[in-house]
């Protein structure tokens, strides 16, 4: 069984294309599109495999798009544990303006996942996570899946002896009560969570430590976009700045960062160096179009820079 098991409740077939110019009204001539299996946990598993870790992805899937996703994951060498559902898997679309480099992302809500299908996802996760070191729940939840569902995922991770990592949004993020090893909110999400603005590093560390002291998580990693990220525990706080690159696409950059963090911790890196690997993976993802998985050679060179 894999060391890292991810759960993606709202996966997507990601479609990406380029156009010379993206403007309203006119018919736009685009390049031949390319397709990737996407969604938070799936992206995490893909990057973990690039880093040499064993990774499996649990996700519900239905229809032709769901079947296509499973085949794409074979190409990424990710073990797919698919829970069949009645509704079709969603499709998300990204158009990149070749003239300006601007990226236009169209994200659909996803299928209805029935209560029975939700239960089956948890059953499969329980089976796959038996020998896992980390369970990662990443990405949004589809319509009909309550935010409190994440607490049941945390219970499964705890029962299996795995560390639970959460990277989500909305109710799926703030509904968590306890049992998280690492949670990764954005700065905006952390501000909403604690109910105040956090303009300084000191205030961001203090807010993160509130979550630690409340027993929500042992580690809080706040992604700061162009500023990098800060990692906070009860006794320590480390910060790694962002690396400057020419951005091709931001799709999957946050998921790639989570993969780097988890693999870094799995390999028993220090907090700083685990965060540096997360920054390196997120940066490497910026160089690829759409949700194409980042390259190991890019990760390795950014890792050296981030650890300085």
Commentary on this structure:
The protein contains 10 helices and 13 strands. It has one domain: UDP-N-acetylmuramoyl-L-alanine:D-glutamate ligase (3-Layer(aba) Sandwich). Helix 6 (187-194) packs across helix 7. It is of the alpha/beta class and 308 residues long. A 9-stranded mixed beta sheet has the order 5-4-1-8-9-10-11-12-13, sandwiched between helices. The model has no long low-confidence stretch (mean pLDDT 95). The radius of gyration is 18 Å and the shape is globular.
Topology order in helix (H) and strand (E) letters: EEEHEHEEEHEHEHEHHEEEHHH
Question: Are there runs of 5+ residues with pLDDT below 50, and where?
Answer: none
Strand portion: 15-25%
Largest sheet: 9 strands, mixed
The tally of strands reads 13
Helix content: 25-40%
Form type: globular
Sheet with most strands: strand arrangement: 5-4-1-8-9-10-11-12-13
The total of helices stands at 10
State the fourth-level CATH superfamily: Ribokinase
Text of the CATH class:
Alpha Beta
Number of domains: 1
CATH fold type: UDP-N-acetylmuramoyl-L-alanine:D-glutamate ligase
Overall SS class? alpha/beta
Q: Mind telling me which CATH architecture this is?
A: 3-Layer(aba) Sandwich
Radius of gyration equals: 18 Å
């Amino acid at each position: 069984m894999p060391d890292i098991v991810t759960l993606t409740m709202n996966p997507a077939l990601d479609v990406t294309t380029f156009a010379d110019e993206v403007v309203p009204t006119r018919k736009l001539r685009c390049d031949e599109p390319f397709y990737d299996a996407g969604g938070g946990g799936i992206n995490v598993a893909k990057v973990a495999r690039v880093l040499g870790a064993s990774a499996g992805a649990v996700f519900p899937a239905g229809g032709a798009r769901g079947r296509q996703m499973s085949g794409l994951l074979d190409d990424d060498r990710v073990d797919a544990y698919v829970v069949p559902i009645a509704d079709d898997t969603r499709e998300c679309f990204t158009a990149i303006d070749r003239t300006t480099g601007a990226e236009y992302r169209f994200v659909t809500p996803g299928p209805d996942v029935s209560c029975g299908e939700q239960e089956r996802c948890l059953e499969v996760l329980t089976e796959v996570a038996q020998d896992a070191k980390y369970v990662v729940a990443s990405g949004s939840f589809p319509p009909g899946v309550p935010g409190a569902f994440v607490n049941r995922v945390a219970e499964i991770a705890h029962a299996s002896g795995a560390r639970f990592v959460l990277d989500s949004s909305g109710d799926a993020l703030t509904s968590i009560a306890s049992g998280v090893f690492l949670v990764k909110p954005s700065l905006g999400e952390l501000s909403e969570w604690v109910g105040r603005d956090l303009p300084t590093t000191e205030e961001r560390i203090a807010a993160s430590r509130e979550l630690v002291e409340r027993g929500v998580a042992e580690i809080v990693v706040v992604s700061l976009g162009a500023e990098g990220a800060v990692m906070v525990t009860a006794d320590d706080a480390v910060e790694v700045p962002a690396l400057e690159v020419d951005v091709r696409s931001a799709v999957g950059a946050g998921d790639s960062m989570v993969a780097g963090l988890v693999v870094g911790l799995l390999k028993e890196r220090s907090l700083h160096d685990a965060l540096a690997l997360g920054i390196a993976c997120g940066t490497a993802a910026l160089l690829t179009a759409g949700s194409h998985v980042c390259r190991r050679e890019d990760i390795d060179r950014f890792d050296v820079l981030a650890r300085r």
